[in-house]
Amino acid sequence: MLNSRRGSCRPLGSTVIEDGVNFAVYAPEAKAVYLCLFDTSGHSEIARISMYLHEGGIWSVYVSPLNVGALYGYRADGEYSSPKGKLFNVNKLLLDPYAKDLQGEFTWSERHFCHMPVGKLSHSDNAIDMPKSKVVSIAKYEGQKPNIPWSRTVIYECHVKGATARHPEVLRTLRGKFSALCEPSFISHLKFLGVTTLELLPVHAFVSEQFLTTKGLTNYWGYNTLSFFIPHKAYLCSADIREFQTMVTSLHQAGIEVILDVVYNHTAEAGVDGPTLSLKGLNNQGYYRSVAGQPEVYINDTGCGNTLNIDDPYALGLVLDSLRYWVETMGVDGFRFDLATILARNSDGFNRYHAFLQAVIQDPILQQVKLIAEPWDIGPGGYQLGAFPAPWREWNDKYRDTVRRFWRGDQSVLPDLAKRIHGSHDLFEHNLRGPLSSINFITSHDGFTLADWVSYEHKHNEANGEQNLDGHGANHSMNCGKEGFSTDPKVTSLRLKMQKNALLTLFLSKGIPMIASGSEFGHSQGGNNNAYCQDNRSNWLAWKSSQFNHSLTFFIKELVTLRKQFDAFAHPFYIHTDDSRFSVHWLNEHGEPMQPQQWHEAERQWLVYMLVDKQQQKALLIMFNASKEPLNMVFPTPPFSAQWQLALTSCKSADVIEHSISISPQSSWVFTSVNEGITHG
After folding, report:
1. How many angstroms separate the CA atoms of 426 and 238, rounded?
2. Are 233 and 327 found together in one domain?
3. Do residues 162 and 196 share a domain?
4. 607 located within any domain
5. 578 and 649 co-located in one domain
6. Which family does it belong to (predicted)?
7. What is the pLDDT of residues 86-133, one digit of tens each?
8. Residue 111: exposed, middle, or buried by beta-carbon count in 10 A (0-12, 13-18, 19+)?
9. Using CA of residue 407, residue 408, residue 409, residue 415, what is the dihedral sign?
10. Is 276 inside a domain boundary?
């Protein structure tokens, strides 16, 4: 027989204490809140227990005997009035916002919707279609974290399932799971490339939107969060959430960090026509933003129906508690925040002094991890690249677009290109931030793959079922002579060279380099630049028996090795003329300093610069020729009485003359300064 008493209002969620469990949930305007316990199958509600109200709107109850594995949910009773933004409905079983585990599948049903039938309260119980919150007790992470400095970070962005779903050296039972990411074959691949940090697309428990499931599609990327604490169950082999901890431990032992792409800007409950699954039924007006004076109208700065209201202290607390949990308990090393502008937006716009940003910076746990912002959303003033405070880093889409445009052959790009490869000082230096604030990338999960960037001039998203209207239109891409797949040696050779050009530019730019998984062996999505709903081979990487044989794999490895040899790329400050150690020199084809007017010559489609380390007495000479004509380049005098030696090129061979070189069309070249008898590998 179960016994219950008032219990404690802290911490929120379910907590095992002695022979019972304390439950606490925030629902400030509810008239009553009930804890509902279920049998081990999760199908039958076996007890409904009234919870006790504390000051401030927290409800709690302590139940014994009860232990780990107990299945439960909440029901909140109170006023239902859509015009007032109040959606209390005792017929809706709600997932605990602080649940650390769940059992059962989510099923789309009209029973989840309070507004059905339209304008009337739905009396249908949705428990049969809801997963159940599960009591769990999991120890904090005890592994040794790599603590890799930003100056040495190389990011590899990948999807948990897509990374290994077709990996021939991973057991079939592990493919597409967290456990596969710590398999020796996958780790050795990352180590071979020189990757230091694995950035995973969303792993918080998520569900697919109904408009996708009705078309036989799924939310493959995972940007539709159901729970901020629970690892996505489909990525587990045994349904034991500790598998995530095991994965992190193995990666850490290999010296590889784990960063999570997190979605705290909206939830799967969507807008007014969306389901009531958790937050809506507990404190709709507090957890979500609404239009002033119109509580029933959700602000949709995310494009997903709702926007989390981080101005509310309990919504803010939910996000911070979730972040700390993933660091302290699950062991992760940092986060990339999807649509991060939302997290720092007050009612009157973006605020770089927002409570969320201040709380993270002063938090003793979160101030120690890597923080990356996607600095844009579709809301008012949503584009905020360069506006986040230190120690935040930011995805730099201006870097992406500028490099793409240059290698595509666009004119008048040089001034902007020089800024981007020098660390985008125009974006970050104004608020005392350095070049390592910029996360540089050519491609990511969103948009064309690197191979598709050189294979398609137009997006081909018909498989998404939206008449090819979805996805970005401005991709700054090229097809190298034919749209789509080609076996023409001239086309394939040029495509390979252009991919190498982009990668060479990326790794020899100041800032933090990031590559999307599959870039190292030409993964294609068939021209789909918005493959968020494609859980199939268009997203699953096509591994070969030995991926190290691909020329791009070796090329990236060589680039990472070369980058590590020159401390200028790890320097946390911008290089100016008064720098005591480093200097950068922009050169024309005669090996002389670029003249002001030359920067603005539209037909000039090449850029040459020399990076000098006076302390170590060595230099890099980097040449980019995006034009379709060869460039006769005169070598500048190497510093320190050295000579120039070819280190890397995107071409198969080089025609180097003693004092000059013929730079092939659409190619890139790197030379290192070599003193007598000394070479740089």
Report:
1. 49
2. yes
3. yes
4. yes
5. yes
6. Belongs to the glycosyl hydrolase 13 family.
7. 999 999 999 999 999 999 999 999 999 977 655 455 788 999 999 999
8. buried
9. negative
10. no
Strand spans (E) along 159-274: 197-200, 257-262
Examine the domain organization and report whether 563 and 580 are in the same domain. Answer: no
Question: Are 575 and 564 in the same domain?
Answer: no
- Helix (H) or strand (E) holding 158, with range, is strand 155-158
d(CA 188, CA 175) in angstroms, rounded, equals 16
Q: State the CATH number of the domain containing residue 577.
A: 2.60.40.1180
My answer on whether 647 and 561 are in the same domain is no
Q: Structural domain tally of the chain?
A: 3
421 and 552 inside one domain: yes
Residue in the block written with tokens 């939206």: 466
Tens digit of each residue's pLDDT (9 = 90 or more) over 282-321: 999 999 999 999 999 999 999 999 999 999 999 999 999 9
C-alpha closest to that of 175 among 199, 193, 152, 159:
159
Catalytic: which of 96, 301, 374, 394?
A: 374
**Residue 13: strand pairing partners:** 24
Q: What share of the chain is helix, strand, coil (3-state, %, to 5)?
A: 25, 20, 50
Q: What is the DSSP string of 415-434?
A: HHHHHHHTT-HHHHGGGT--
Instruction: Mark whether 485 and 372 lie in a shared domain.
Output: yes
For residue 564, give the nearest of 194, 198, 146, 199 by alpha carbon.
Answer: 194
Last residue of a domain, one of 535, 568, 601: 568
Would you give the DSSP letter of residue 359?
A: H
Report which secondary-structure segment, H or E, holds 46.
strand 45-50
Nearest Cα to Cα of residue 274 among 224, 310, 221: 224
Non-local CB neighbours of 296 within 8 Å, separated by 6+ positions:
82, 83, 84, 85, 272, 290
Q: Is 338 a catalytic residue?
A: yes
Secondary structure (3-state) at 159 = coil
Q: How far apart are CA 477 and CA 452, in angstroms?
A: 8
Report how far residue 240's alpha carbon sits from residue 247's, in angstroms, rounded to the nearest whole number.
12
Distance (Å, whole) CA 205 – CA 211: 19
pTM: 0.96
Answer with the one of 568, 586, 613 that is the final residue of a domain: 568
Give the Cβ contact number of residue 629 at 10 Å: 11
d(CA 303, CA 32): 33
We report the CATH number of the domain holding residue 49 as 2.60.40.10
Residue 279 lies in a domain: no
* Domain range enclosing 594: 571-674
Place of tokens 């995973």: 200
The yes-or-no answer on residue 269 being catalytic is: no
Compute the mean pLDDT over every residue in the chain, rounded to the nearest whole number: 95
Q: Is residue 275 part of a domain?
A: no
> Which of the following is catalytic: 101, 209, 269, 338?
338
- In residues, how long is the chain? 681
